[in-house]
Amino acid sequence: MQNKKIPMRQCVGCGEMKGKKDLIRILKTQEGEILVDATGRKNGRGAYICPDIECFKKARKSKGLERSFKMAISSEIYENLEKEMSQFEK
């Protein structure tokens, strides 16, 4: 019997490698819109972050999302993402 491979992703906040299911996907659509992808299946460029507000603050401070998406992100977008992420926090 084979062990099933667990897809690993790196958190843009803390930099830890974790299972894909344990992280939240933040998505940049083709139109340039940035939003939280709860399903993890929408089309676009994805970045992963822990469901922890502290990791989100680290990602904002270190510009982890900006590096992942190769674009500047306004403070309004960060505030909207923070509100959406507060729903997922464990």
Overview of the structural elements:
The structure is a single chain. The chain is of the alpha+beta class and 90 residues long. The protein has one domain: Hypothetical Cytosolic Protein, Chain: A, CATH 3.30.1230. The chain has three helices and five strands; from the N terminus they run E-E-E-E-E-H-H-H. It has helices at residues 53-62, 64-69, 75-86, and strands at 8-10, 17-19, 24-28, 34-37, 45-49. The strands form two sheets. The protein has a three-stranded antiparallel β-sheet. A two-stranded antiparallel sheet has the order 1-2. A hairpin with a 6-residue loop joins strand 1 (8-10) and strand 2. It starts with 7 loop residues before the first strand and ends with a helix. The relative contact order is 0.21. The mean pLDDT is 92.
Derived structural class: alpha+beta
The shape, in one word, is globular
Report the total helices: 3
Mean pLDDT comes to: 92
Strand order of the largest sheet: 4-3-5
Roughly how many Å is the radius of gyration?
13 Å
Number of strands: 5
Work out the count of structural domains: 1
Reported by name, the CATH topology is Hypothetical Cytosolic Protein, Chain: A
End-to-end distance? 34 Å
CATH superfamily: YlxR-like
**Unreliable residue runs:** none
CATH hierarchy, class: Alpha Beta
Major beta-sheet overview? 3 strands, antiparallel
Beta-strand fraction estimate: 15-25%
List the quaternary state of the chains. single chain
Series of secondary-structure elements, N-terminal to C-terminal: EEEEEHHH
CATH architecture label name: 2-Layer Sandwich
Helix content: 25-40%
